[in-house]
Amino acid sequence: MHLLRHNPDKRALRALRARQELVKAGVTRRDLIKAGMMTGGGVLLTDVGLPSRAAAATNTGSPPVTPFVEPLPILPQLPARAVTTLNPAPTNSPNTAINPLTGLPFEGRSEPHQSEDQFPPQTFFVTRMGANTNAIVSPDLPPQTVWGFNLGGADLSADAPLSPGPVIVTRYGSPTIVRRYNALPPASQNGGFGVPEVTTHLHNFHSAPDSDGGPCDPVQQRFFFQGQYYDYFYNMQFAGWNSTNPPNGNIQEALGFLWYHDHRVDHTAENTYKGLVGPLLAFNDFDTGDESTGFHLPSFPEFDIPLILADRNFDPQTGLLTFDTFNTDGILGDRFLVNGKIQPFFEPQKRRYRFRIVDVGPSRFYQFFLTNPDDLTQNIPFWVISSDGNLLQQPLQVTSYELGVAERVDIIVDFEKIASRFGNPSRIRLENRLEQTDGRGPTGNILPAGSGDQLLEFRPTGAAVTDNSFDPEPVSVPNVPADPNACVFHPICLPDISNVTPRITRTFEFERSNGGWVINGKFMDCTQFRLTPQVNTAEKWIIRNSSGGWSHPIHIHLEEHRPLTRNGVPIQAGNVEFGRKDVMKLTPNTTIEVLMRFRDFKGGYPFHCHNTVHEDHAMMLLWNVADVGDNNTRP
Asked: Rounded distance, CA 111 to CA 231, Å?
């Protein structure tokens, strides 16, 4: 009944309906561009609707919901399976036998795994991508249709796809195959958006192109179709295994928190918005997942919890998930989901927890705080131990943290210290106070405590409990001065790059042009590589945004980069960017310099904005690692 009481803006609602009808009719953005109906301002529907920016400015508004009534979902683990249960058995080369039911090869992969012969797979997972028509994101909204990943069962009615998908738990030294089946419904049953051709990118992993999950390639098949499967191979070796640190790579390059998501060219925003995202954890001999060993970080899964942040819009009349395919600026939702639920609550014990937080977009940035809603004057600290899945050389004590689209952060929240130092509050909220009014990016304004987006409510329970996990406070900045040579998590220290000499310096300008987004004046083109790095060398990349109002979270595949300068100022110890990153926030009128390395693998990879709306509107390029590099300084 609440849907009937909700009164959205009628002009914006009319525009939404018109755009939904275009999608149902199969009209694409490209069709509208060819017809002269799409400009830099969006879709011009003079008789039945509004341009995209006007529609965004007069937000239709999702139906109201009551926050903090459902518990935080703890995402299940994807179970490992015996290799004998995979039928047909996995092979290094793709399975090109024709499936008589589809007329397509059984497997969508078109090239062999580059390093499988050297690192035979030991761990195997299976998951199916499909539609879940009964997802409950809030008791105040009807069941939703989302796309997700299941736990591997062949019967989707008994093993429903989940969004976010299950946690994939891997370990360095145990080469892994993840078999993903495409069991999505046909486009005619997509509910208005999303395409059933998919490719799954394991964001930030050091993968060969055959398993990177890139969007497209001039030669190889990257996305696969309904009825096909794709075996993704991750050799689970540290970067440098075939170059600087043979035979198993450099422990200093260890990754911990990654996420997987669809990367279908032109449709990444739709498919991830629909639900094709999930977390992956990579443990090693030191970051073990068991607080009684190694670094003694809080144990997984009881006290080490991934938090998947997403903002979404719901139709003001039907209450169903809605997506504006024709918005070119960036989409902001007005309802906030954590692990697939709108504003859930969590009841932690009074001890330390490790929360691994990822912003899956499509376009919103966050600056989150721990807010006591019963005493807004309190500034509650927490500890940053990892950025983009990389343990920092020294933890940072902070009271807020900014997260761009696709960035990750691992934080330690000590609920015992909060209780003893802040009057034993009964509730603490994870609050986003960063103002953002459209898809262009945040304004930079920080809202007052209690006035931001309330994401998750913590309700600490019981008395303090025994906690033998790592306490970052005694070794963190600013309690201890920042030290560029610090290595709190030895031997996972910051790799020395003092003797790394870039072979070439290249410049990339991120700009807006002709209603879309370009890099160095060019749109994405799946038929060509724009540059050729030389394998096992390094390059300096200068990345520039001269716009007056746009922000772009920039992501580079294959290897992490080392941020060197921001607007000419060297990045120093004590800054969260002093480390290894795979996403950099390219804010307005900003230039950043990074060191890129191209080790171990050859082949094609993308470089793009991770505001997925900008990405789908062509702010991406392809590059190809080869034995001999080119000298193009402005690709």
From this structure: 11
Running DSSP on this structure, what letter comes out for residue 224? B
Q: Find residue 556's DSSP bridge partners.
A: 607
Domains (ranges, CATH) in the chain? Answer: 2-57 (no CATH), 83-283 (2.60.40.420), 347-475 (2.60.40.420), 505-625 (2.60.40.420)
pLDDT at 45 over 70: no
The percentage of the chain sitting over the pLDDT mark of 70, rounded to a whole number, equals: 91
Whether the Cβ atoms of residue 557 and residue 590 lie closer than 8 Å to each other: no
| Tokens, residue 410 | 């691992």
Q: Identity (one letter) of the amino acid at 430?
A: L
Distances (CA, A) of 326 to 15, 127, 277, 364, 629: 11, 31, 22, 17, 38
**Residues in CB range of 23: below 8 A, 6 or more apart:** 192, 193, 325
* Phi and psi, residue 618, nearest 5°: 90, 15
Instruction: Output the 3-class SS for 518-552.
Output: EECCECCCCCCCCECCECCCEEEEEEEECCCCCCE
Is 205:178 a contact under the CB 8 Å cutoff?
no
Instruction: At 184, give phi and psi (nearest 5°).
Output: -70, 155
Closest C-alpha among 522, 519, 524 to residue 217: 524
pLDDT tens digits, one per residue of 117-145: 999 999 999 999 999 999 999 999 999 99
Cβ-proximal residues to 599 (8 Å cutoff; 6+ apart), any chain: 239, 240, 242, 243, 244, 535, 536, 559
Pairing of strands 304-314, 335-338: antiparallel
Give the chain's radius of gyration (CA, Å): 23
Contacts 24+ apart (CB under 8 A), 567-570: 567/591, 567/592
Cis peptide before 196 (omega within 30 of 0): no
Burial of 36 (0-12, 13-18, 19+ CB in 10 A): exposed
Q: Which residue shows structure tokens 């979270």? A: 553
Residue positions counted in the chain: 635
β-sheet bridge partners, residue 173: none
Q: Is 0.90 surpassed by the pTM of this model?
A: yes
The Cα 294–Cα 288 span in angstroms is: 6
